[in-house]
Amino acid sequence: MTHAEVLSPASLLGMLSPKGVYILGYGWLYGMSVWVSFFGGIIALRALPRHQFGALQHKTFPVYFSSSIALSSALLGLWVYAHPGLLANMTSPLRADVAQAYVLGSVIALQSCNQLVVGPMTSRQILNLRVCNSTMFQRHKLEKEEGKNYNDPGVSAQMKALNAKFGMLHGISSLANLGAVIALTFHGLWIGSYGL
Questions:
Q1: Residue 179 near residue 105, CB atoms below 8 Å
Q2: Is 132 helix (H, G, I), strand (E, B) or coil?
Q3: Is residue 32 a contact partner of residue 64, using CB atoms and an 8 Å limit?
Q4: For each of the chain's 196 residues, which pLDDT tens digit applies?
Q5: How far is CA 193 from CA 103, 157, 186, 187, in A?
Q6: In angstroms, rounded to a whole number, what is the distance separating the alpha carbons of residues 102 and 12?
Q7: Which of 51, 100, 145, 196 has the largest CB neighbor count within 10 A?
Q8: Which has the closest alpha carbon to 185: 100, 65, 118?
Q9: φ and ψ at residue 131, rounded to 5 degrees
Q10: Angstrom distance (rounded) from CA 189 to CA 191
């Protein structure tokens, strides 16, 4: 029979262990990632006019990607702390602890790509220290000028080019985010089955 823990100040302080903090951080990161990827965006898309939806995503995605990077970096640091031999074996990716470190590193890399490369290309382009309108906002502006939605028949060649660029950037961002969610799912299944 397992030992039943009695609640006391010492046992409550014991919850602030690296393992407890790790599980809390992982739950926060995974829950946030699943919500943003599969629920929040779909709900907002259905509830808001498209321009308001774009403005909302423009404000929420940087916070989501920054939080994702910070949390996954903290998890990687705690993972390395909990597995002292990991750094000496980084060239052995078939070792479970090393593989999980690479999984967490992939989340950091994918979300950093979204935060530092794809996101700025989608929401603003910095050229010669001059901030230009974003692909998304250029498209909104052109819609007003042409009096047509981006997907109406007979849009200009410029609108078609913006649509193609926006579609490509959105696809890259979605794939990077999906890769991060898959990596986090794999990591969660691992820690659920084998622990930290």
A1: no
A2: strand
A3: yes
A4: 577 878 888 888 878 899 999 999 999 999 999 999 999 999 999 999 988 988 898 889 999 999 999 999 999 999 999 999 999 999 999 999 999 999 999 999 999 999 999 988 876 543 333 344 567 777 777 778 888 777 778 878 887 787 788 889 989 999 999 999 999 999 999 999 999 9
A5: 16, 54, 11, 10
A6: 32
A7: 100
A8: 100
A9: -85, 120
A10: 6
**CA distances (Å), origin 69, targets 38, 58, 72, 104, 111:** 19, 17, 5, 10, 6
- How far apart CA 139 and CA 33 sit, in angstroms, is 28
Helices 96-113 and 157-194 cross at an angle (nearest 10°) of 160
Q: What is the residue whose two structure tokens read 């992939």? A: 106
Identity at 21, one-letter amino acid code: V
